[in-house]
Design a protein that fits this description.
By secondary structure, this protein is α+β, with helices and mostly antiparallel strands. It has 15 helices and 46 strands. A hairpin with a 5-residue loop joins strand 13 and strand 14.
């Protein structure tokens, strides 16, 4: 189908091989019309649809291809119901339904998949077809996940989603809204550890790809005559269906969730679930129930705690378990270059390492997977699974760690003793080097270094790297001190945050930032390389961001032009994913409390990275909010409940994110902006435009002609939802990420908080008892909240 053709309701498009058909349909029991594709042999089995959340009420819909290569779905009044997108232009755009079930838009006769302008395989609904990727492009941010129907008659996205969680070692997870319901597990080289039914057989071949650019799973059929699909049904079950040519119907080949042990963390921390035992939950060896009374009443969610604390020496041992579904890997560490023996050596040297296992079970096993902290969602499998080694105190393990490691020749690693000896020698050398560096910093206590678990740089090294903190190396200055560019002897570029001696950030804030960032690993968080403490000097050493901070682009009359619309949406999506990790997916729940444009750094590919964790607060697993008398943050980004009452939560960061999105879209600062016609700041201006039905007038004029109006409107819509007055009205970051990445209808926003005009200068702080805030938007600290 080309630009001169339309596909009207009642007409269909069939793939070349006759496997799939494309057109308008009505689900059973419904009167609404949807545009989608289905199996030619099974018209009731719809595998993809365009307008699943926005039905058409009559039979006058049409699908067109524009000259830009965009698919446009129109209703009877020629209003756009749904459209695709593309970042490139085409001379002769053509829409084609492939026999794989992939609806693609290509340029003329160019059939190379990497050159497709758009493809439905990138936007799955509830079904994974052979050849379709499920996972994320780590460069573009595209996330492919499955979402169930709301019901048998309603194809709108339902409560259940299946996708790959990229925190720690990637794993396949089923969620009900934001709550993890079932963890399929991590890939062990043959299958996901919690779904051994997916191991290779004569019909299916599953493939898992994980590299610096992307992470995904897909499956292929060994026999092209077989029809098969993996679907998340409305009840939340994940099922693999195969077509029977004898009965002309589908049958269930495998179901992922089959018993109560598949309920995520049913037994709590440091326990193992076994559906063939009674009771099904049991503490791991060396652990006892945290609450014996609740455990006896079969409430296992509190989990287990150690019977005896670890010795944190090489006398600790490891208890092996075979045939298990490995614990949650979201806080794990992995490396495919280490053997199992080397992996044990690494684990025993780190007191926070609780367990280790092979990354890949093929052959004799390879790679190293280590867990830090409590072990969640471990279960015994009737078949499949793999071995894991869980750390115990020497007094609990029966034999010392040293003796147990000597006995572990059954691990099948040839030459283990030689490798282990070499590992110990290397570790000893590293230890000596670290001790030597420590002695150069005579006033740095052992406890601080152990606490931070980061490389300690000596002052001489940093002075040499920055030309003795030369003004020519100065990148900028914030509320807590200056930042310098440096270069280590080996050539690595670094950024040095040198805290001012008069800074409000004392040793506690400094250690807070070190401890927090050291435990956080995400592509949208700045990487902390180490720190330096020497007498009154306190410094943090980061990876160097060549493009500096976001504010140097979006608020600069010249540089703003370098951030076109696609780059800005990429930055918005990256910040959202970084905040989602902090709020939900990291081992610790972190409230940043100072999200602003100057704290978003850009690498050489303009990927955003959240920085400056000096004001961040760590919450416990169940804690979601807190109060403080010490209000910290930046005017213009603080939420009302935080600025006025000292009440902060994840919703405080959501408010700041909403302000930041409006700044990115408009190119204007919230603080200091005042519309000439009505006394409103940027939030008030955006709200008035929205209220009057002209929100797109907010868009920065430098890219107004090149942006995608529907995407821009969605960003503004989501931002206004984030800056609503009441915290309970704002979405959480998991919902924000879903809203930004989908085309589903959104609720109408309510009036923003702080949407009036700029205050007079004398009232420009949260409390006029304090000094007024300077124009460079440095972070402020107020000791009393009203």
């Amino acid at each position: 189908m080309n630009t001169t053709q339309s596909l009207r309701d009642g007409e269909t498009l069939v793939s070349t091989g006759g496997s799939f058909e494309l057109g308008f349909f009505t689900p059973a029991g419904s009167t609404s019309r949807y545009f989608g594709l289905w199996y030619k042999k099974s018209p009731q089995t719809v595998v993809w649809m365009a307008n699943r959340g926005i039905p058409i009420s009559n039979k006058f819909g049409t699908l067109n291809v524009t000259s830009q290569g965009i698919l446009v779905l129109l209703n009877g009044t020629n209003n756009i119901v749904w459209s695709s997108n593309t970042s490139t232009t085409a001379q002769n755009p053509v829409a084609q339904l492939l026999d794989s079930g992939n609806l693609v838009v290509r340029d003329g006769n160019d059939n190379k998949a990497e050159n497709f302008l758009w493809q439905s395989f990138d936007y799955p609904c509830d079904t994974l077809l052979p050849g379709m990727k499920l996972g994320s492009n780590l460069v573009t941010g595209l996330n492919r996940f499955l979402s169930s129907w709301k019901g048998k008659e309603n194809p709108a996205p339902g409560q259940f989603t299946l996708g790959i969680d990229v925190q720690g070692y990637p794993q396949l997870i089923l969620r009900k809204e934001t709550r993890i319901m079932y963890r399929v597990g991590s890939w062990n080289g043959q299958y996901f550890t919690g779904f051994p039914e997916l191991k290779p057989d004569p019909i299916y071949r599953f493939e898992f790809v994980f590299n610096r650019n992307e992470v995904y799973v897909k499956f292929e059929l060994q026999n092209s005559s077989v029809f098969s699909r993996l679907t998340v049904i409305p009840s939340g079950l994940v099922q693999l269906f195969t077509w029977s040519h004898q009965t002309n119907d589908w049958y269930v080949f495998a179901t992922a969730v089959v018993d109560q042990c598949e309920n995520y963390a049913l037994c709590g921390a440091n326990a193992r679930c076994d559906s063939n035992s009674s009771p099904v939950c049991d503490c791991l060896d060396g652990f006892i129930p945290k609450s014996p009374s609740e455990w006896d009443s079969q409430n296992w969610t509190g989990g287990c705690i150690r019977r005896t604390p670890l010795d944190c020496t090489d006398k600790d041992g490891f208890q092996s378990y075979t045939g298990v579904k490995l614990p949650d890997t979201s806080s794990s560490w992995y490396d495919d270059s280490f053997s199992l023996v080397e992996c044990e050596g690494l684990c025993i040297q780190n007191c926070s390492c609780f367990a280790y296992a092979n990354l890949d079970i093929r052959g004799r096993g390879s790679g190293c997977l280590r867990w830090f902290g409590d072990l969640m969602d471990t279960r015994r499998l009737a078949e499949g699974g793999q071995d894991i080694y869980i750390r115990l105190a020497a007094s609990q393990s029966g034999v010392t760690g040293e003796k147990k490691r000597k006995k572990k020749t059954h691990a099948g690693v040839i030459g283990g003793a030689v490798i282990l000896g070499s590992s110990i020698l290397i570790l000893g050398i590293v230890f000596c080097i670290r001790r030597r560096k420590h002695r150069k910093n005579g006033n740095v206590e052992d406890r601080k270094e152990e606490e931070m678990e980061l490389p300690m740089f000596d002052l001489t090294t940093i002075e040499h790297a920055t030309f003795n903190f030369s003004s020519s190396k100065k990148l900028g200055e914030g509320g807590f001190g200056a930042v310098y560019k440096g270069e280590l002897i080996e050539g690595q570029e670094i950024a040095v945050k040198r805290l001012s001696k008069s800074s409000g950030q004392g040793l506690n804030e400094f250690k807070n930032e070190v401890l927090l960032i050291a435990k956080l690993q995400h592509r949208n968080l700045v990487k902390l390389l180490g720190c330096c403490i020497h007498e009154d000097e306190k410094m943090l050493i980061y990876e160097y961001m060549p493009n500096r901070s976001l504010d140097s682009f979006i608020f600069d009359p010249t540089r703003r032009k370098f951030l076109d619309w696609s780059k800005r949406t990429h930055i918005i999506d990256g910040i959202a994913r970084g905040l989602l990790y902090l709020h939900q997916d990291s081992r610790l729940r972190i409230i940043h409390r100072d999200i602003k444009a100057s704290n978003i750094l850009l690498d050489n590919e303009l990927n955003p990275k959240i920085s400056d964790f000096g004001l961040a607060r760590m919450f416990g697993g169940d804690q979601t909010e807190a109060n403080t008398k010490r209000v910290v943050g930046t005017f213009g980004y603080m939420s009302p409940e935080y600025a006025l009452d000292g009440h902060f939560s994840v919703k405080s960061d959501v408010f700041s994110f909403g302000v930041l999105v409006l700044e990115i879209v408009s190119g204007k600062k919230n603080r200091g902006f005042c519309h000439p016609d009505y006394n409103k700041n940027l939030l008030g201006h955006a709200w008035m435009l929205w209220f009057n039905g002209i929100p797109l007038e907010l868009i920065d004029e430098c890219f107004a002609d090149s942006c995608t109006p529907s995407k821009a409107l969605r960003c503004i819509h989501v931002a206004l939802l984030c800056v609503q007055q009441r915290p309970e009205d704002r979405p959480n970051m998991s919902s924000v990420v879903l809203m930004l990445g989908s085309e589903n209808p959104l609720p109408q926003p309510k009036q923003p908080g702080f949407f009036m005009g700029s205050n007079p200068p004398e009232k420009d702080t949260l409390s006029n008892k304090h000094q007024s805030h300077s124009a460079n938007e440095v972070t402020v600290t107020l000791l009393q909240a009203r």
